[in-house]
Amino acid sequence: MAKLPGFRSPTVDAIYRLYEERQSPRLGRRHLGASLIGKECTRYLWYVFRWCVTPDWSGRMLRLFDTGEREEARIVRELRAIGIEVHNADPRRAGRQYEYYTLGDHFGGSLDGVARGFLEAPKSWAVCEMKTHNDKSFKALREKGVKVAKPEHHAQMQVYMALAKLKRAAYIAVSKATDFIHFEWIRFDKKEWERLRAKAERVLRATEPLTRYSDDPFGIPCGWCPAKDVCHEGAVPPVSCRTCVHSTPIVDGDGPGLWRCERKGRYISAKDQERACDEHLFIPALVPFAKPVEAGDGYVLYQLRKKNGGRFANVGATGFVGEDVDQLDSATLRALGESN
Fold first, then answer.
1. Is the pLDDT of residue 2 over 80?
2. What is the tally of helices (H) and strands (E) in the chain?
3. pLDDT higher for 222 or 317?
4. Which residue blocks in the chain are alpha helix, DSSP H?
């Protein structure tokens, strides 16, 4: 039997568009999130931290995130109803989530909550992490446990336990298909925390992309990675201070998430980082289709890597200029145009 054509509803499109219009225009998070540090590819983490990967979620996905947040509120109500003391809002921050950071406030994140009174250990305060899973993911979680099935979630809890100075975490997962609840009591692992912190510091201090996880753009995990176009296909990332050769994150110190422009000798606000300035020059490693052959005051001269490739220059606000710019392929030219 032939597959029936799908029906597209303008009403549904309007609902999704509502979420898309609410989406923050920011290029990315201002910090390297604890929710990401469990990913194996440090190159991807660097791209995210340097705003080379622009968040652009579909309306359906944004609505799905909202569903997850609604489930968190439901779990909190249920925990309190059975006598567990839950704190999911920091009174010092106008009721927003508790946040913890380290490494100059460039690494960390916000907790779903902290709680005490779980039957597994009634006297222990614990980080409370709440997640929703699709059917396949939930079955793997039940079979293997969070450390194996969801290593990113396990790493996230290790970071939060370390920064909040707690020794326990309660992992509460809900199946979106069946509403079954999975609970795990996680203990703090000092060695794992030290490994994750060192990993984060390596990403933060790197001045160019770290080693690629795989050279196969179609394999796992590169095939569906949001950074695939930048990492494997030579796309140019958006212009921001974080993609500029002059900027440096201040990792040593107490924060708060400072960046410094070495050319101008001053700190850069988050808003200014997004806008960049007329003296922006790409980190040369972010122009992979050419190699730098000369640099001077306000410019970097490149030569195309292809055989008999010509030269062009990256000149601040002017972007990429030179007689040989027309040797770039149309996709690259389009990316350059959108980046400047």
1. no
2. 10, 15
3. 222
4. 10-22, 42-49, 59-81, 135-144, 146-149, 151-164, 190-205, 228-231, 270-275, 330-339
Residue type for 79, please? L
Cα of 273 vs its chain's centroid, Å? 17
Q: Tell me: pLDDT of 180 over 90.
A: yes
Three-state DSSP at 45 gives helix
**CA neighbor of 35 nearest in space, from 65, 60, 75:** 65
Strands 168-175 and 107-110: unpaired
316: left (phi over 0), alpha (psi -120 to 50) or beta: left
Percent of the chain scoring above 90 in pLDDT: 64
pLDDT above 60 for 340: no
Nearest to 50 by CA among 231, 242, 228, 209: 242
- Which residues are paired to 139 by β-bridges? none
